Every structure is written in C-alpha cells, then in structure tokens.
Structures
1.
Amino acid sequence: MQGTTLRGKTALVTGSTSGIGLGIALALAAQGANIMFNGFGDPTAITKLQADTAKEFGIKTSYHNADMSRPQEIELMMRAAADEFGGVDILVNNAGIQHVANIEDFPVEKWDAVIAINLSSAFHTTRLALPRMKANNWGRIINIASAHGLVASAQKSAYVAAKHGIVGLTKVTALENAQTGITCNAICPGWVLTPLVQKQVDARAAEGGISVEEAKRKLLLEKQPSGEFVTPEQLGALAVFLCSDAAQQVRGAAWNMDGGWVAQ
C-alpha cells in the first residue's frame, strides 16, 4: 500500500542507482518522498529508473551525477536539489567504495579515494543540507556506515577508518542538533549482496576454485551468524522508521542490522 507519511518531503540518496542506496530510495519513495538519485550507471537505465519510480509512487524524481569525491560537484548537486525541490529534507549518505590490502601495501591514492567518498562526502552534504533543515526545524540525516563502523577486519584500513569516522560524525551532528527537529543516525549493515560484495564473492570463488554459492556461504559464516544476507529492502524499512515521528528521539544511534555480526 502506498504511504503518504513523507509526502512533500524531498530525499537525496547518494549512491542510489544500485544496491543499498536504491533500496532506501525506493522505500522512501513508497512513503511519498520526492527522490533525487545520485550515482554511476548507464544514462538510459537511470532515466528509466527515474521515470518508473515517479510513475509508481506518484512523486517527483531527479538525478545528479556528482562525483562524491569532489566537494565542488557535491555543492552543485545540493544547489540543483534546492533549485528543483526547494532543498533536501531527508539526506541519506550512502555512496561508498572499497579497496582491500595490508596497510604497508595500501596505495595512497586508494586511501585518499576511500576517505573522500566514504567519509568526507557525508560532511559536505551535511553542512550544505543543515541550513534548510534548521530553517524548517525538521530534517533526517541517515549515514550508511557498516558493521565495519563498529568493529574491524584485516586489510580494510581505509574502509574501517572511514566507517568509524561516519559513526563519529553522526554523533556530533546529532548532538549539535539535539534540541531541534533534526535527527542524525547511522545504519550499520552487515553483508548485503550489493555489486560491491558480489565482486568479493566472485574473487573468492575464483581464488578457491569453488562455486559462487559456496563462496557466498563461506563469506557469510566468517562474520554473519545468521548465515543470511541483509537485504536492501530491510535497510529501506529501517530508514523509513528513522524518518518517522516514532523515531524523533532516536538521535546519534549506530544501528546495526548485521545478522548478529557485532554481537559476537
């Protein structure tokens, strides 16, 4: 059933042309929020995604191809959201990349790119979204961290540092706006079968000479006691809750949805 709880609000979801970001964007659209998509992909497919989403949920959609590692492009995207929708009411910082290597072998440019996209971009979107949210005394900032925002894994120094940083940024944003109608929280997913994770599964299957299904099972059971992937739809439902009136006093939380990963 199509909801109307967010009707008239505008949500910007970074990295929303696939994976977790897309799942969250569609969940917010189903509640009546207008959506500004962002991310990479085939232009024709993105245009179709916009049109299909607008038609299905009776909302307005837009798209901006800002490279989230470039502050000036982020500024242009936020300006476009202001011009088109009046601004951003719901900000979901989801864009992310991964690189895996030991610290002494980690390419410096990869470190810089992971920090820029996974951490600094959220600072830039947040600083640019807050003035409108403060003027309206309403806003929802949701930072997609990771189980790696709470615990670490070897060979993921940049990702883990960025995601721990996102959890810290979330807490500061929440505290600075604690007596306003603006909340800021982090969602910390475990393994989700996104294109990013599928690459890791395929690499593991190739290296070990095992099937993709076996590689998935091994990947999950190393970290995720449930043995099941978290889905973008489940994360979308949590994002909708965090945007609701019921979550008005959920502030500065790092909410793990991880099949038991960090309970160990």
Note: The two ends are 37 Å apart (CA to CA).
2.
Amino acid sequence: MKKLLQVDFDFAGPFGEQMSAALKDLAESINHEPGIIWKIWTENQQGQLAGGIYLFEDEASANAYLTMHTARLKAMGVAQVRGQLFDVNLPLSAINNAPLTVK
C-alpha cells in the first residue's frame, strides 16, 4: 500500500528562489531513493518552517527514508524533525484529482 510521508522542521532559510538554487542537487538525489514516487517541497518563510510531502510505494521505503533524512537534517543542524506516515485512500483521492493510480 502506498504511504504518504509528511515531514517538517524549523528552518531559517534560504527560501524561494534561493532555496531552489541551494537545494537543487539534493532534490535531484531524492529521485533515486528506493520507493519514492514524488515529493512536494514545502516552505513557510513567515513561520520559519520547511519540509515536504512524499509519496512512497510502501511503508518500508517511507520509514527508511525518514530515518536517513532525519539523520541528514540533524547533521545539518536541525534540532527536531517531525515526520508522520499516512495511508493513502486511493479511491477518494482520485475523486479529488490526485495524481495517483487506483489499484
């Protein structure tokens, strides 16, 4: 079953175009993570938050990524990483035009 991973953490920047330029290589590397389908990058400059919404093929892939990503962020100085896994209800998501395949 596909798993949605929601991650967020306190982040002082950069944001916007500067974030895009600074993290381009990281974004490209995420495409090679086992089980990844897609990621939506999230940022909130006013709230000083960043993170992402990821879709993985399965729970094992999502958990492995969360463990690795948490360690990577902590090595970059992020004190606390919040991550939650969710099941995806494919039939209801399809009604609302989610880019998913119903199986």
Note: The longest strand covers residues 36-44.
3.
Amino acid sequence: MQFTGFEPQDFDVFTIDGLQPRMDALIANLRVKLTQLGVDCTPLLSELTGEEMFAHVAKHARRKTNPPHDSWVAWSKNKKGYKMYPHFQIGAWNTHAFIQFGIIYESPMKGVFAEQMLVHLDEIKQTLPSHYLWYPDHMNPQGMVMSEMEQADYDRIAHRLANQKNGEVMIGTTIPRDEAIQLSPEAFLARATEVFQTLAPLYQLAFSTVSV
C-alpha cells in the first residue's frame, strides 16, 4: 500500500489564490496522494471490471488563468486517457473527498448508458445506498441525493446524456474533509473498495445493449 492518508493541506490547496501558487501547492500535496491512490486501487478496479485499468492523475494542463477547484485520479481501460470512457474517480474539493463512477460529455458511450440506466433503474435504486449522489454536472460539487430523487430526475439525466453534447453523469459518495483526514490510510482504502464494488455494475451497463 502506497497511500499515506489525507492531511489538511491536501484540501487547503483550493483556498490558495492564483493559478500558479495553487498548482504548486496541489502538486506538492494532494497530487502525491492521488498518485498513491492510483497505484493502490488499480488492481482492485481491474478485478472488478474484468479489464486492465489505468490510473490518470489530473494535470489541469489546459488552465491558463483560473485555478482548479478540485482534483482527482481517474481510472479507465485506456492507457492514454479516461475522458472518452466510463471511468472511476477519487478526488477532493476543499470541503470533501469523493469516490465516484461516471461518464462525461466526451464519451461516445453516453447514449448506451442512458438507455441502460433507465432499463435497469429499479435494480440500480435497490443496489445503490440511498445517500449516494448523482451529479449531472461534474464541475458542480452539489449532487442530488438518491433518496430525494424522483423519476423525472433520472429521466432528465438520461435525456441529457443521450441527446445533448454536454450531457454527463457522475454517481458516488462523498467524505467530509475532517472525516477523510481522520481516516487511516487502511480505512480510507477500505471505504473506497466498498464504494467501487457497489458502483462496478454501472460500469458494465455502459458496455451493454438493451435486451428486448
């Protein structure tokens, strides 16, 4: 195990003003932990998906003025990148850490997942804990709590996925920063393992076809 656990400075990087100062702190602190998690969780995700998975730590290389508000490590089956594929993530905002599965706007598999999501929605709602969150916009840290969602919410997410260029969805859970800091490395990895095991069936839906 490489992960050494989260510390306050891993979350505090997002309070630093200015792109370069924030990036310098992010690279020195949080990115180290994300890289460690990338190594530790790759074998688990490869086993859960039945495919060789690769870790991709966010570099935020395209940013020229605005500093990042969050950062993450993502796993996909492609060695070169993750944005085109269904993927898993662990990351952090200033207020919390997150563990998720999702498909963002660049993936050509959005339509398949949208269709499968609705076909298997009853099963999904029975399988995922009611406190899990759905994010129709991965840049917004405020997700919709499953226990408060109605059919119209799922329909809206599926419609955007299938029909709009910017349609996307992330699904998972959060850990408040103070709790994440207090968790031992072993305890955090155990939590991540549990969440990834719960989310793994969603990954398979993205590579499925609707059965008649």
Note: The helical segments are 8-12, 19-28, 30-49, 110-119, 121-127, 151-163, 177-182, 185-205.
4.
Amino acid sequence: MALLLETEDLHFSYHGFEPCLSGVTMAVNAGERIGLVGHNGAGKSTLLHLLVGLNKPSSGRIAAFGRDYQSEEDFRLLRRRVGLVFQDPDDQLFCPTVAEDVAFGPLNLGYSIQDAMCIVDETLASLGLSEFRERITHKLSGGQKRLVSLATVLAMKPDILLLDEPTNALDEKTTRSLIDILVNLPQAMVIVSHDRAFREEVVTRTILMEGGQIR
C-alpha cells in the first residue's frame, strides 16, 4: 500500500499543562480506515488537529504525499487534501444554508459559483442529503448536522478523511447510513471513536493512544 501520511516523534502540550503527546509516530496508507482509540484526554483529537495544522507540535515531523509540512502556508496546502470532520458540527457549519456550507470549500479552492454548486449537488446526492440543500443549517438536528459536516469536507475531494467521534448524537438509522457511506468511500481515514460496534464495521485496523504515545 502507498504511504500517504506519517508522523515521527510528535510532541505537544497545551500551555500550562502536562504534555499530551509524547512522541507519536504513525503512518496512514492508501485504502486504510484506521480506528484511533484511547481514554478521554489521551490526545486523540489533539493529534487530528496537529495533522491539519490547527495546532503546532513542539517537536517532531509531519509528512504527507512525499513532503514535510511545518508552516501555516504548508498546512493550507495540506488541508486541500486532508479533511477534518470535527467532533462538534457547530464548529464546522457557519453559513445560513446547507448549500452555502457545502459550497464554501470549493469556492475557496477557486471553483466558479456554477461549478461549486454542481459539486454541492453531487456531494449531497452521494450522501442522500439532496432534500437538505436549502435547509437552514442551524435548524437541523444533531445527526443531520453531522452528515452535512461530512458533506462539507467531501466537497473538497480530499485524499484522507479525519473523523472525530462521527457517531456522536446519531440515532441507529443515521449511524447505519454513515457506516454504509464510509465503507464505500475511497479515501483513507483516521477515525477517533469510542463506538466499538461502529469501529468493527468500518475500520481496517485499530491503534491505541496511551501515555501520549501510540501503542
């Protein structure tokens, strides 16, 4: 399998706190759906944020697609190919309507309005969300917001998906829909999830974060 992304000896701590990452080394290969598990506070969400440059490690290396990433300018390029779906969809959705939220990424990549709207229609249709196109985003249910958050990331056509507790606030039917969606997507994935049943259906291998490291 082709290597897409790797970290080497990543260290990170929040100001005034003990280190939460103490030498994280991992690799993500094409076609993998990696389950990332560990107790609350183990640093799983923090690691996802570092992978897209939302936080900067105190030391260590992040590489993807054949090059290293260090500066914000570097990570702006990386975020075109690695998409993060936040644990809280309200952190991801900020436009008045679903269509505007999904179009935001393609428009910022330089697509014309017409082409961006075609991407919106294609993405929503692929997720079975076409009926939500003109809905007011903040009036959606928690589960609907979570699926729309996924749509906003998929509209960017990333090579890797990072998903932080994707089944939070989902009922059984929506969880089933999400499972069916994820196992049929071509992207490599790193999925933080406490949901064992979900992981058993979706991930191809599981890694444990403990003591600030991957075991």
Note: The mean pLDDT is 95.
